[in-house]
Amino acid sequence: MSIPAFAALLERLVFTPGRNAKIALLKRWFAEQPDPDRGIGLAALTEELVFTTAKPALLRELAAARVDPVLLALSRDYVGDSAETIALVWPPRAGANAPPPTLSEVAEGLERTPKAELPALIAGWLDALDAGGRFALIKLVTGGLRVGASGRLARIALAEWSGRPVEEIEEVWHGVAPPYLPLFRWLEGKGERPDPRGTPVFRPLMLAHPLGDSDLAVLQPEDWRAEWKWDGIRVQLCAGPGGRRIWSRGGEDVSAAFPEIVEAMDFHAVLDGELLVIRDGGEVAPFADLQQRLNRKTVGPKLMRDYPAGVRLYDLLFEGEEDLRALPFDTRRARLEAWIARVRPARMDLSPQIAFASVAQLSAIRAGARAASIEGLMLKRADSPYVAGRVKGLWWKWKREPLSVDAVLMYAQRGSGKRSSYYSDYTFGLWRPDGRGGEELVPVGKAYSGYTDQELLWLGRWIRNHTVARFGPVREVEKALVLEVAFDAAQRSMRHKSGVALRFPRILRIRRDKPASEADRLDTLMALVGNREAKAAAD
Amino acid sequence: MPHPETWLRVTPAGLWCEPGDFFVDPTRPVARAVITHGHSDHARPDHGAVLATPETLAIMRARLGDGRAGRRQQPLRPGEVVVQNGVRIWLRPAGHVLGSAQVCLEWRGSRAVVSGDYKRTPDPTCAPFEVERGCDVFVTEATFGLPVFRHPRPEEEIAKLLASVALFPERTHVVGCYALGKCQRLIALLRRAGWEAPIWLHGALLPLCRTYEALGVRLGDLRPATAARKEALRGAIVLAPPSVVAERWARRLTDPVACLASGWMRVRQRAKARGVELPLVLSDHADWDELNATIDETGAPEVWVTHGRDDALVHAMGRRGIRGRALHLVGLGEEDEGEAETGAAEGAA
Ligand SMILES: [Zn+2]
User: Which structural domain, as residue segments, surrounds residue A435?
Assistant: First the structure.
């Protein structure tokens, strides 16, 4: 009976505004549901478990096969939401008397069923459920649950239900996986506490504050250590006899996307570092290359060859079982250097320190850094312990000034989600010789942000009035509007038609005063490309 | 044999039987009216002669006052027949609220049934709907005339409410419901589910509960909520008009759970727009399946739709070879659940 029970829980969570009421509902779920369904339900609510096996289109096709098209369209118009419409109009089938599926049956069915048999499987489940159950099932199988029950709230509910302190649960949380059987056994007093030492555990990362002018003025160079702030994703590597994990900054397990790193983690330690695409010779590739590796469930050999991942190490948190976090930064750094020299881990290197004698010198180093792989500088106090979160005065980040070009708007596209009614994605280009004695525009990037609400509306009107062609959600516009586009770095890239990739481009302002012919040329941008080695490699 | 459209006409005042010179559920004062049931959009004040079931007449007197519930009241029990200028008139229960009835009319062998509002799900507070077979025209409502509306069993919704009361024993559950019909049905269903504790009522709901009890419907221990101390209402069930459940009146109670009992609660957006924490899908109108099944059971070759979602229903009948006609009667669907529709539509817009 667990899908109906899950549907009831879901409905109450969605309509209940109160936090205490939500906790009470979760407590009842833990108390009443059998294993493994209570754990699967918990994981689905907190989005630790998200199914994307079935596409919404599959559900629409199933409904179209069962319901008169006119009635379906009228219903869809009235309800407004496709998933809910299908859940409500799904007609009962004479003779269908299968019991409703359990959560574990659904999870297993989605995993094991070949794609061709999926429609029949889902239709069978829909036949066995009532409207509420169908809605929950549709949301579950299409990965669109979004109840807004945070993992933290769920763990508080677990604590209240079991009478254990929430900190104890937090500590073991990353050592257990859905359906959390050892966790529930422990919380019900039927088993040992799951051992966080045995399995890799995420420790919250230490973060830096942006450096302000007043902070800079009082900075004593001898008390501080400087490093580059590398432009990748911050990770924690955690390896030991109990397993290996790569955690993202938010504690998400991203190990599956980087198997070559996991393979190289043949040690017993916890490290802090930056995940980057690093090509032969130690050159760091643009962030866009790293993006090719993110959010993938499986990674093939070609992807690993084209976008080889590596980790640039910042800090050593644990060496073996020894917790180094309370030690001063200088001590940890020395331990890290010695550790690397001894262990020589593959695919990893040390983030070098930058010597400086004065703030003025440091400022000049920052201003001179043009490599796209560098976001700016990190300043760490020599005696800082490694503490979770953003503690002021211990670590600073000092980002580089952005660069900018005047580019011409070429295409506009509707945004997604709440911006879907606006043209909010802008492709812009720069001039280059067309090989026939004239000039042509070549697209160099896409900006999604930077504009004000008023500018967004103004751009929308301008785009509608200057459209020359439409391709689905994309409009091509007259090449007549100049945008000043800021970006953090530019780097050569063979994947882009223009041969250059921009990091985090955003619209600084609309240059209505400037004719399109006076926008910047591609050459100007190329001059800003800082990484000479990468340029040589790309050539 | 004359077609009903030659003797039963749509006029600005409502459906008019020409040879009998009377209206069914007229929207403005007329000389002679036949009233299907006591909801205010069907039973309006200041008619001359009013023909209805004894229960509907009692409800009209309670709501409108003796002076305005028709100058001359003529009770007609289901099964009895009166003849007015050659038009035979009889009533059959509609299962909507206490006293609700379908108006059956026959003139020169031509027969039409005006069903008013109705439902087919059993209701402990009123007589069940009876099918009048063999009519030439069946006149139906279509409040929930879309296939998205399939009401769950009332017992399930009551169980949902009681489970919530058990889960939140410190909180007060305030259930929004219409004063006539829904309120008494909720009470009766709660009693059947074993809830014997006092049920507390907003002042606007008390008088009709007394009328029901006077007409023989037992509702158990009912108490006025307005006079009660806040502490006495912890863990209690309070019934109130839908308009106040999410308002200040309810917020003075202990951590209230805003509930609303209505067929519209089937659609999440509607429930959200009303600020409801616990939607209860409980309706006194036929759902999509009941509308279609009823139409088929009457065997009528032609069906007129008075109000509601006529487009979907007329389309579905057409596919079964039944002639459908939308009357677009103005002024119906304004009380009971029709009211929720307009409120929610504004909220959702
Ligand atoms: Zn009514």
Answer: 403-538
